[in-house]
Automatic annotation (TrEMBL):
Native organism: Eublepharis macularius
Signal peptide residue numbers: none
Gene designation per UniProt: LYRM9
Protein family membership: Belongs to the complex I LYR family. LYRM9 subfamily.
CDD domains reported in the protein's UniProt record: Complex1_LYR_LYRM9 (cd20269)
Name by which UniProt lists this protein: LYR motif-containing protein 9
Domain Complex 1 LYR protein, residue spans: 19-76
């Protein structure tokens, strides 16, 4: 699935523009702001930070794109999970 296809199902507009790790980081933090409750937001902000620390040494372009794709898919799942609870 291409990143353009992900844009159609992404949690926030702009997912199709995410091409670099820093863009992904900012995008995921914006997604966190849309979640209900400060404790839930802080939980996912912490998870985003930890994930970036774990993958900081990745340098393969294909691997980086795989990580970006998976992170956007995961963000979509989380956003849908909390949207259904409202």
């Amino acid at each position: 699935m291409s990143l353009q296809a992900l844009g159609a199902m992404a949690p926030l507009p702009g997912a199709e523009l995410v091409k670099r790790p820093l863009q992904l980081y900012r995008y995921l933090l914006r997604c966190c702001k849309e979640l209900p409750g400060e404790s839930v937001q802080e939980h996912y902000r912490h998870a985003v930070r930890q994930s970036f620390k774990v993958h900081a040494d990745e340098d393969g372009p294909e691997r980086i794109q795989q990580i970006i794709k998976r992170a956007i898919e995961d963000a979509d799942w989380v956003m849908e999970k909390y949207k259904k609870q409202k």
